[in-house]
Design goal:
The chain is α/β, with parallel strands linked by helices. The protein has ten helices and eleven strands. Strand 9 and strand 10 form a beta hairpin. Helix 1 packs parallel to helix 10.
């Protein structure tokens, strides 16, 4: 069994991005500028935005966080997005999800200029991705591809079971792995899939992204499979100082011995998401996608 170390891969990519930013600045051009909009006081969102700020500093980006109160109206947020769309000094920006319930996430996503949509959620970028055109890829699927690439895991002609059909992870990674260059035969599984256990157990590659702690058990994984665990659930624990621990969608202790490669939780896919955001912001600054 080989453990896929997301921190190692993320640090490697971070060094590459930082070197490219140094070249940009040395040539007299401004460093890439990433803006994050944070609405309300969600603790997890604040922590995640803090990690993004830190990573921006490590790679040499300019970073701005716009903190808006919980009672910000949908109209006020859309107006702020419009201002960022028009600012020439902003290369890319994100609106941290989830949003307060009185604001439509879909309206917000569609209001972002696709050229600055470094989260890769806008329908234009989604459509370009599905068509195999250059686009900003969603962070988690892109991070999974980077892990497979770094560890030289062969995907051509392999079967892959993706468990979970969200627009953020399941659907995009299923599409990407089926495209030329990756050449997987992908089955997208979900709660209504018949013979789910048998389908997953037949796959060479299993990507668990349904948000259900330890859902994938040893009897659902064939010997030698590659297992990518995207899930992360906080559960109570009397064995930690914090009083909780993190679990993935895979029952790691019993599944890992059967695998050729497996990602841990934490430390697997998680560290890759912010790096993918940095990659997209660099592409936006260089105008690689839209010119």
């Amino acid at each position: 069994m080989n453990l896929i170390d997301g921190k190692e891969v993320a640090n490697s990519l971070k060094r590459e991005i930082a070197a490219e930013v140094s070249e940009i600045v040395a040539a007299g051009r401004p460093a890439p500028h990433l803006v994050a909009i944070l609405v309300g006081n969600d603790g997890a969102s604040q922590t995640y935005v803090g990690h993004k700020e830190k990573c921006c500093g490590e790679v040499g980006f300019r970073s701005t966080v716009l903190r808006l109160p919980e009672e910000t109206t949908e109209a006020e947020l859309l107006a702020e997005i419009d201002r960022l769309n028009k600012r020439d000094d902003v290369d890319g920006f994100i609106v941290q999800l989830p949003l307060p319930k009185h604001i439509s996430e879909q309206k917000v996503i569609e209001a972002i200029d696709p050229r600055k949509d470094v989260d890769g959620f806008h329908p234009v970028n989604t459509g370009r991705m599905i068509s195999g055109l250059p686009s900003y890829l969603p962070a988690t699927p892109d991070g999974i591809l980077e892990l497979l690439r770094y560890y030289k895991i062969d995907t051509a002609g392999k079967t892959c079971a993706v468990v979970g059909r969200s627009n953020i992870v399941g659907r995009p990674i299923a599409n990407l792995l089926s495209q030329k260059g990756w050449d997987c035969t992908v089955t997208l599984c979900h709660s209504r899939t018949k013979d789910l256990k048998e389908t997953v157990a037949a796959a060479d590659i299993v990507i668990a992204a349904l948000g259900s702690a330890e859902f994938v058990t040893a009897d659902m994984v064939k010997p030698g499979a590659v297992v990518i665990d995207v899930g992360i659930t906080r559960v109570p624990s009397d064995k930690t100082k914090s009083g909780w621990k993190l679990l993935g969608d895979v029952k790691f202790d019993e599944v890992a011995p059967k695998c050729s490669y497996i990602t841990p939780v934490p430390g697997g896919v998680g560290p890759m998401t912010i790096i993918s955001l940095m990659k997209n912001t660099l592409k936006a600054a260089k105008k690689e996608i839209y010119g």
